[in-house]
C-alpha cells in the first residue's frame, strides 16, 4: 500500500491525457487524410491539446514504470482500470457525454474489482516485495 499514491498518480495522469486528447481532436474538427497524410498527422500531433495529452501520457508511463519496479504487475496493472472511471465521470461534466445506468453499473463493477485487488496487496511488505509462502509438499497438492 506504500506505493498506492504513485499508482493513483499514474491513473490520474492517464485519464487527464485522454481528456486532453479528446479536447484536442474536437478542436481540430473533421479529420481527412486524403490530401497529405503526413502533414495532417503532424498538424494533429502538434496541436496544443493533443501535444499536451501526449506529454501527459509520457509522464503517466514514467510513473507506471516506477510503480512496476516496486510492486507486482498483477497488483499494479488492474488499477489502471480506474482511469475508465475517471474518464467517464470527467467526460460527463466536461464534454456532456452520456452517463447512463449501464455505464454507472460498469463503473461500480470496476471500482469493486479494484478494491478487491487492493485488498490483496495487504499481504505485501512495504518495500513492495511479496511475503514468501511456505513451500507446499507434493502430498499437500494432491489433497
Task: Write a concise keyword list for the protein shown above.
143 residues; mainly alpha; 7 helices; flat
Note down, in words, how this protein is organized.
With 143 residues, the chain is mainly alpha-helical. It has one domain. The protein is built from 7 helices and no strands. The protein is flat.
Largest sheet report: none
Q: What is the total number of structural domains?
A: 1
Shape designation: flat
Work out the helix count.
Answer: 7
Rounded radius of gyration (Å): 20 Å
By secondary-structure content and strand pairing, the structural class works out as: mainly alpha
Share in helix? 55-70%
| Total strands | 0
Distance between the termini: 34 Å
List the helices and strands and how they pair.
Blueprint: H1 4-28, H2 37-45, H3 48-68, H4 73-76, H5 82-94, H6 101-120, H7 138-141
Helix pairs in contact: 1-3, 1-5, 5-6
Q: How would you summarize what this structure contains?
A:
67% of the residues lie in helices and 0% in strands. It is an all-alpha fold and 143 residues long.
